[in-house]
Design brief:
Layout lengths: L4 H27 L13 H28 L2 H32 L8 H22 L3 H16 L1 H11 L19 H46 L1
Length: about 230
């Protein structure tokens, strides 16, 4: 892929995502029906669920790319990993903001140490460690290696988050969309959720390509600078 093309692709994808997001906001505010039990606050679901999807997608991509880096020692894989991790942290912050606001009305408290919440917080803390390890190592290569291991271990928490509502006593309700018997939600709710998830995905992918382009450019510049110094000496 020619230099600069990921950034242009990212900008176009992000702009498309923003356009779809505007449509999704109209659907959330004016089109989708109000949930009978929770009322207006339930509309946070259309932010909370897509943010959770992108968080897990981003951290999963970080883990897969980290495994490829450990196998091939290809810096492009590490660039993908760190770029995805940065995106994951952004959407994780959105997830942990929307969740407590919804929980305050639904459960009467902003935070409860129930399994899914606790495992999600653990996932975020592991990936905070991912960045700390990268910066704390004495050499960049060693930092990338240690961080890759942290990313792979952290991704093991993702399936636990999903299954916690089945395996453990949880305040989170059972899924109403992704379930063996098919979705039980109102069709308009389902459509609104899918549109919002598409919007979040496009925005994430757009920002990912922009940030990846910058990351690769920065590494290329740094490598050229090192070669120039070596040539002088």
């Amino acid at each position: 892929m020619e230099r600069g093309r990921p950034g242009r692709l990212g900008a176009g994808t992000a702009m498309l995502g923003v356009a779809v997001l505007l449509i999704a906001q109209w659907m959330i505010l004016l089109w989708v029906p109000k949930e009978a039990t929770q009322g207006v606050i339930q509309r946070l679901f259309y932010v909370h669920a897509p943010a959770a999807w992108i968080t897990e997608l981003a951290f999963g991509l970080t883990a897969v790319s980290s495994a490829i880096y450990l196998w091939l020692r290809d810096e492009r894989a590490d660039a993908v990993a760190v770029t995805a991790a940065e995106g994951g942290m952004f959407f994780a912050a959105l997830l942990l903001l929307a969740g407590p606001l919804w929980g305050k009305v639904a459960w009467g408290a902003y935070w409860s140490w129930e399994p899914r919440l606790t495992l999600t917080l653990l996932l975020v803390l592991i990936y905070v460690g991912y960045f700390l390890v990268r910066g704390a190592a004495k050499s960049p290569e060693r930092g990338r290696t240690y961080a890759a291991v942290v990313a792979i271990v952290g991704a093991l928490d993702i399936p636990l988050i999903h299954m916690s509502v089945y395996w453990l006593r949880s305040l989170h309700p059972a899924p109403v969309v992704v379930r063996p018997g098919g979705p039980t939600a109102d069709p308009r709710m389902l459509v609104t959720l899918l549109v919002t998830m598409a919007a979040f995905t496009l925005v994430f992918l757009g920002l990912f390509w922009i940030r990846y382009s910058l990351e690769v450019g920065e590494r290329t510049w740094h490598a050229a600078r090192v070669r120039a110094k070596e040539a002088v000496t």
